[in-house]
Amino acid sequence: MSDKVEASQKTVKEQIVEALAILEHNQWSHWIKYQDRLFNDEEAGYDVWYRWRELAKTKYADLTEEQKESDREWARASFKIVSKGLVDELKKQAIDRNDIDEEWENSGCESWEELEKLRKKKFVSLVGVLEVLR
């Protein structure tokens, strides 16, 4: 079975988690490569290690803007993955709604107004998640 087929069978949450796991691996890989380059110079490596130990004790709010920006770069990458997954789900739901007759038959709603309320409730729940992430 190809990755494409497997991905299409996963829920939006599973797809987002998988994409975030890939990002996390990329972060880790980037970090290890940096460490490897750094610690080839023993003296420089020790100085950096000492700074990192101190930095690890620092709250995010107390970081310099440059340090915060470094963290924000990875946060933006995470946000891009999450928001893309949610937007894709919203688009999928919008496309699925083109078959209104089938939706009407399966909804159990007794009026168009009731169906619209149901549709809005589903849509608003996903949009609400996007708003929280902003």
Characterize the structure shown.
- 83% of the residues lie in helices and 0% in strands.
- With 134 residues, it is an all-alpha fold.
- The chain folds into 2 domains: 3-80, no CATH class; 97-134, no CATH class.
- The radius of gyration is 23 Å and the shape is elongated.
- The two termini are 36 Å apart.
Output the keywords.
134 residues, 2 domains, elongated, 83% helix, mainly alpha, 6 helices, disordered N terminus
Mean pLDDT: 75
Quaternary structure classification? single chain
Biggest sheet record? none
Shape assignment? elongated
Number of domains: 2
Percent of residues in beta strands: under 5%
Structural class label:
mainly alpha
Question: Which consecutive residue ranges, at least 5 long each, have pLDDT under 50?
Answer: 1-5
Helix content: over 70%
Treating each run of at least 4 consecutive H or I residues as one helix, how many helices?
A: 6
Q: Alpha-carbon distance between the termini?
A: 36 Å
Radius of gyration: 23 Å
Kindly state the number of beta strands.
Answer: 0
Q: What series of H and E elements makes up the topology?
A: HHHHHH
Compose a concise summary of this entry.
With 134 residues, this protein is an all-alpha fold. Helices cover 83% and strands 0% of the residues.
